[in-house]
C-alpha cells in the first residue's frame, strides 16, 4: 500500500461521520451502564466518543498505564481551550529549557487550522509529515478495522475509530513513541464522554471559560454543559478552573465543585496572575491573560505533582509568553499584495467568542486608524470589511452572526462591506459556479442589515473568491486603507490565512 502522508489523510478523512444521528443511541445504556439521570446526558446523540478507545489502544500496544505515564494535563472548556493548552505547554517548555525537565513536551489540540499535523506538537513544533505518516501506518497495521470502509451498522469496536478518535489515537501513539516527559491534552467536545477522556490518571485537570455551545449534545442548560466538561476531573489529579462568569447564582461553579468533590478533589478557581508581563502582544486581548493565568497555574501544579519546585521563575514566565503563539486566534496580518490592507483573523465560532472578536477588532482598528469610522467612504480613513462563514448543524449561524453584528455595532465598529462565503477552497480563477443565495443566506442578509443597515453585502461561492473580493474592495476604494475582519469558524480562518501567507 501507498504509505504516504497523503494516503494517511485519505484514510483518516474517510472515517468522518457524515452527520450525527437524530436520536440517542439505544445501545448506549449497555456500553455505559453508569449513565447518570438528570445530568443533561440525554442530549447526547449517537455513541459517545469515549466508547472503544481503550479497546483500540490495546492492539496498538498501549495499556492504560502507558497513557498515564505521559504525565498529562487535561483541559476542557467552551472557549480558550487551545490557547490555554498552548500557554501551559509553553510555560513548561521554558522551565525545561532552564532546568532540564521536562526535556520534551507534547501538545494535542483540535481542530487544526491549516494542516492536520498541527494537532500534534513536540516541543512546540508541529510534527513533520514523515513521522505523521509513519506513526499512522503503525496504527493502521495493528487495527484491521481501518482496512475496510467505515460501517456504522457494525458494533463500535468492530467498526473501528472515527475521524477524531483516530486523531486522538495517533496523538497518544506519537507521544509514547517519542518518549515525551509530559503532554497537554485538549478535549474535542464535552469531557465526560470525550475520546481523550480515556486517560485514567492525569496529573492536572483544568476547565476554561464555559458558555452555551454544543447545546444539542451537551445541554440543555449551563449546568449540564458544566457537568460534561468537569467529567475530566479525576481522583488524585489537581482540579483547576478559570473564574467562571455565571449570572445564575453561581450554578456553574457549584457544578464544578460538586464534580470535583465526587473525585475527592477541591477545585481551585484561578484569577488573573499578576506575574504575567504587561504590554505583551501575546496577551492581547485581555481574555488571553485569563487563559495564560490558567495555563500558568496548570504548569505549576504539574511541577508540584512531579516533585519539582512549584513556582516557575520570572524568566520562565517572560520567556514562555514571548515564545507563545497560537495560529488563528487574534491574528493580525499585513497584506503583502495590497498596500494598506490589514487582516484581523480570529477563529471564533460561538456567541461568546465572536463578541470578544468584535471587541478586539474594534480596539485594534481604532488604534490603527487616525480617522473616525464615519469617513468610511469619504476618501479618508479605512474601508472596513467582514468575511463571515459558519456552517455547523449543531449551531445557529444566524444567531452567531446576530451576536457578532450587535457586538460590532456596540463597539462603534461600523462595517462597510460584508462578504458571506461557503467553506469551499476553490481558487478564484477556477471558480465558475454561480452561487445563488439560499434561504439561509437571505436570513444572514436580513440579520446583518437589521444591525448595520448601511452595509454593502456580497455572496461568494468560495473562500478564495471572498479574499479576492475583499482585496478588490480595498484596491478600488477611495479610502486610504483597508481593515478586514475574518471570523466565524476555523474552517474559514485557516484557508484565508493560508492564502495570505502564500
UniProtKB/TrEMBL annotation:
<dbReference type="GO" id="GO:0005739">
    <property type="term" value="C:mitochondrion"/>
</dbReference>
<dbReference type="InterPro" id="IPR001645">
    <property type="entry name" value="Folylpolyglutamate_synth"/>
</dbReference>
<comment type="pathway">
    <text>Cofactor biosynthesis; tetrahydrofolylpolyglutamate biosynthesis.</text>
</comment>
<keyword id="KW-0067">ATP-binding</keyword>
<comment type="similarity">
    <text>Belongs to the folylpolyglutamate synthase family.</text>
</comment>
<dbReference type="GO" id="GO:0005524">
    <property type="term" value="F:ATP binding"/>
</dbReference>
<keyword id="KW-0460">Magnesium</keyword>
<keyword id="KW-0479">Metal-binding</keyword>
<keyword id="KW-0547">Nucleotide-binding</keyword>
<dbReference type="GO" id="GO:0005829">
    <property type="term" value="C:cytosol"/>
</dbReference>
<protein>
    <recommendedName>
        <fullName>tetrahydrofolate synthase</fullName>
        <ecNumber>6.3.2.17</ecNumber>
    </recommendedName>
</protein>
<dbReference type="GO" id="GO:0004326">
    <property type="term" value="F:tetrahydrofolylpolyglutamate synthase activity"/>
</dbReference>
<keyword id="KW-0436">Ligase</keyword>
<dbReference type="GO" id="GO:0006730">
    <property type="term" value="P:one-carbon metabolic process"/>
</dbReference>
<dbReference type="InterPro" id="IPR036565">
    <property type="entry name" value="Mur-like_cat_sf"/>
</dbReference>
<keyword id="KW-0554">One-carbon metabolism</keyword>
<dbReference type="GO" id="GO:0046872">
    <property type="term" value="F:metal ion binding"/>
</dbReference>
<dbReference type="InterPro" id="IPR036615">
    <property type="entry name" value="Mur_ligase_C_dom_sf"/>
</dbReference>
Amino acid at each position: 500500500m501507498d504509505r504516504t502522508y497523503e494516503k494517511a489523510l485519505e484514510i483518516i478523512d474517510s472515517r468522518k461521520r457524515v452527520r450525527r444521528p437524530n436520536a440517542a443511541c439505544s445501545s448506549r445504556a449497555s456500553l455505559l451502564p453508569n449513565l447518570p439521570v438528570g445530568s443533561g446526558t440525554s442530549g447526547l446523540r449517537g455513541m459517545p466518543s469515549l466508547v472503544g478507545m481503550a479497546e483500540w489502544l490495546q492492539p496498538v500496544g498501549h495499556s492504560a498505564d502507558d497513557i498515564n505515564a505521559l504525565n498529562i494535563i487535561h483541559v476542557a472548556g467552551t472557549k480558550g481551550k487551545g490557547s490555554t493548552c498552548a500557554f501551559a505547554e509553553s510555560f513548561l517548555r521554558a522551565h525545561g529549557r532552564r532546568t532540564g525537565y521536562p526535556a520534551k513536551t507534547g501538545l494535542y489540540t483540535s481542530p487544526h487550522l491549516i494542516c492536520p499535523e498541527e494537532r500534534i506538537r513536540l516541543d512546540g513544533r508541529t510534527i513533520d509529515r514523515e513521522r505523521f505518516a509513519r506513526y499512522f501506518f503503525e496504527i493502521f497495521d495493528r487495527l484491521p478495522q481501518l482496512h475496510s470502509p467505515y460501517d456504522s451498522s457494525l458494533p463500535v469496536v468492530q467498526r473501528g475509530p472515527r475521524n477524531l478518535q483516530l486523531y486522538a489515537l495517533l496523538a497518544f501513539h506519537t507521544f509514547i513513541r517519542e518518549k515525551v516527559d509530559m503532554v497537554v491534552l485538549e478535549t474535542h467536545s464535552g469531557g465526560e464522554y470525550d475520546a481523550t477522556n480515556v486517560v485514567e490518571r492525569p496529573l492536572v485537570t483544568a476547565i476554561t471559560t464555559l458558555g452555551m455551545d454544543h447545546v444539542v449534545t451537551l445541554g440543555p442548560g449551563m449546568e449540564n454543559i458544566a457537568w460534561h466538561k468537569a467529567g475530566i476531573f479525576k481522583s488524585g489529579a489537581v482540579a483547576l478552573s478559570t473564574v467562571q462568569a455565571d449570572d445564575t447564582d453561581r450554578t456553574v461553579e457549584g457544578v464544578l465543585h460538586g464534580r470535583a468533590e465526587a473525585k475527592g478533589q477541591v477545585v481551585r478557581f484561578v484569577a488573573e496572575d499578576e506575574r504575567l508581563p504587561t504590554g505583551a502582544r501575546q496577551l492581547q486581548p485581555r481574555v488571553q491573560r485569563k487563559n495564560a493565568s490558567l495555563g500558568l497555574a496548570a504548569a505549576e501544579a504539574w511541577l508540584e505533582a512531579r516533585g519539582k519546585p512549584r513556582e516557575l521563575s520570572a524568566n520562565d514566565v517572560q520567556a514562555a509568553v514571548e515564545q507563545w503563539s497560537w495560529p488563528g486566534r487574534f491574528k493580525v496580518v499585513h497584506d503583502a499584495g495590497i498596500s494598506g490592507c490589514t487582516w484581523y483573523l480570529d477563529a471564533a465560532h460561538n456567541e461568546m467568542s465572536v463578541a470578544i472578536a468584535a471587541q478586539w477588532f474594534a480596539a485594534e482598528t481604532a488604534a490603527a486608524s487616525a480617522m473616525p469610522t464615519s469617513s468610511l467612504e469619504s476618501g479618508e480613513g479605512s474601508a472596513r470589511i467582514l468575511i463571515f462563514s459558519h456552517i455547523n448543524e449543531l449551531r445557529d449561524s444566524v444567531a452567531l452572526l446576530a451576536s457578532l453584528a450587535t457586538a460590532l455595532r456596540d463597539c462603534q465598529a461600523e462595517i462597510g462591506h460584508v462578504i458571506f462565503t461557503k467553506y469551499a477552497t476553490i481558487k478564484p480563477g477556477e471558480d465558475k459556479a454561480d452561487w445563488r443565495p439560499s434561504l439561509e443566506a437571505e436570513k444572514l442578509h436580513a440579520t446583518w442589515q437589521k444591525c448595520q443597515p448601511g452595509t454593502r453585502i456580497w455572496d461568494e461561492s468560495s473562500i478564495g473568491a471572498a479574499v479576492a473580493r475583499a482585496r478588490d474592495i480595498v484596491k478600488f476604494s477611495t479610502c486610504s486603507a483597508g481593515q478586514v475582519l475574518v471570523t466565524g469558524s476555523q474552517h474559514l480562518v485557516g484557508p484565508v490565512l493560508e492564502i495570505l501567507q502564500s
